[in-house]
């Protein structure tokens, strides 16, 4: 029947177009389930919190950890997309690409549920109180 490692079997199955299409559908369905759980009111994620005390404890690392725990497939896709093609992902890369991945996930989650706006509130507060502005060119 099937021989080889799991990786060999998966690679062989992925080469068959019909199987590849079905595996992609399953993968996307799993990401959809993760995102539905992420916006749940029963166990609110960090991105849903907006009180002053909760905002003070909000950090990119905390949101990243929450995303990785709740949406590991989405997090992996975003980390893979953010990492340059020339090199393999490492721990130092994770910190380097963390802000873009967290903000991308926050934008996607806010599109899905309007109350998932903690990251946007944090960025707005930083811009407002640091005096950051875009100069005209």
Comma- or semicolon-separated keywords:
single chain; 7 helices; mainly alpha; elongated; 137 residues
Description:
The protein has 137 residues and is an all-alpha fold. Helices cover 68% and strands 0% of the residues. The chain has seven helices and no strands. Helix 4 (60-70) crosses helix 6 (91-112). The chain starts with 5 loop residues before the first helix and ends in a 7-residue tail after the last helix. The model has no long low-confidence stretch (mean pLDDT 80).
What profile does the largest beta sheet have? none
The average pLDDT is 80
What's the total helix number? 7
Ends distance:
65 Å
Give the radius of gyration: 19 Å
Strand content: under 5%
Order of helices and strands: HHHHHHH
Ranges with pLDDT <50 over ≥5 residues?
Answer: none
The helix content is 55-70%
Q: What shape does the CA trace take?
A: elongated
Based on secondary structure, the structural category is: mainly alpha
Number of strands: 0
Please give a quick description of this structure.
With 137 residues, the protein is mainly alpha-helical. Helix content is 68%, strand content 0%. It is elongated, with a radius of gyration of 19 Å.
What is the element layout, followed by pairings?
Blueprint: H1 6-14, H2 17-38, H3 52-56, H4 60-70, H5 72-82, H6 91-112, H7 118-130
Helix pairs in contact: 4-5, 4-6, 5-6
């Amino acid at each position: 029947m099937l021989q080889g490692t799991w990786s060999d079997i998966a690679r062989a199955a992925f080469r068959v177009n019909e199987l590849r299409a079905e595996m992609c559908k399953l993968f996307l369905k799993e990401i959809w389930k993760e995102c539905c759980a992420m916006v749940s009111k029963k166990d609110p994620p960090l991105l849903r919190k907006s009180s002053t005390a909760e905002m003070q404890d909000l950090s990119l690392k905390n949101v990243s950890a929450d995303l990785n725990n709740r949406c590991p497939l989405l997090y992996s896709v975003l980390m893979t997309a953010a990492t340059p093609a020339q090199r393999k992902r490492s721990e130092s890369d994770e910190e380097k690409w963390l802000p873009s991945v967290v903000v991308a996930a926050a934008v996607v989650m806010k599109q899905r549920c309007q109350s998932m706006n903690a990251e946007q509130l944090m960025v707005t507060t930083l811009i407002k109180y640091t005096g950051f502005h875009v100069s005209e060119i």
